[in-house]
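Q: Could you fold this chain for me?
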Amino acid sequence: MSTDIVTRPVTVDGLSSAEAAERLRLDGPNAAEAPPRRHLTVRVLRQLTDPLVALLLAAAVVTTVLRDYPDTAVILLVVAVNTVIGVVQEVRAERAIAALDQLAAPTARVVRDGQDLVLPGVALGAEPAEPGTLRRVPRSPQESVLGAGLGRHILIAGALISAVTLGAGVLAAHWDRPWQSVVFVVLGLAQLGVALAVRAPRPPGGRRGNPALPLAVAISALLQVAGVLVAPLRDLLGTEALGAVELLACAAVSVLPGLLLRLTMVIRRRKAGSVNLTSPDGSGW
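A: Sure. Below is the predicted structure, expressed as structure tokens.
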């Protein structure tokens, strides 16, 4: 696909059907071309051209010349078994990949002629697009995946989680409490808090985000706490029981990384003077 097509801004109404059809004609579908299926003969030859198999075949020729026919039969039997196993595994792997492709959701929601449509695509986002997405200048095709500050933000989030987790563990060890269990709870809850904090902002009255995400976070938090409350899980994970006060303290400390990240987002938007402004990389950070 040419650079001018990728970087040309798109209107709020999206592409027209005619323009989308023209791009599809010029650039083809947004999917990798499936490799052709190999014939059984080709699969067998691929197995026989393996260096180790070729060495065994050479040894079979030598034993035949020396009239050591039992050894020749054993070598040929090993080669035949290896070839059958290799071909079967290759076929099963291709079938497994095809099954995974069928499980994937090959659709995506797009704006076409000013209307929301669900069309065949590569991936489907669970969250609605953040405000101003279609008005944002597209990123350059040459830009790194972690460019535009995304790599820096990931490092900041990781540093905050690490600092809070290690700090809680050190304090727990100083107070002669089960610091491994404290680290276990704080680390898990802090990551869940960051996942909620970095969600894209929603304008007042706009479309709500993915309702399943808060539910998934709540279930994950309950399972994390259950790892130090339920005896079978404690035995499995090697944790120790924590009291109610200790759990509340862990929860309070775990909120800090997500809270700091969220405050940073709010301050940045207010300084920019626009509620629709997010970071240059479009992550909302």
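A (continued): The CA atoms of residues 47 and 86 lie 7 Å apart.
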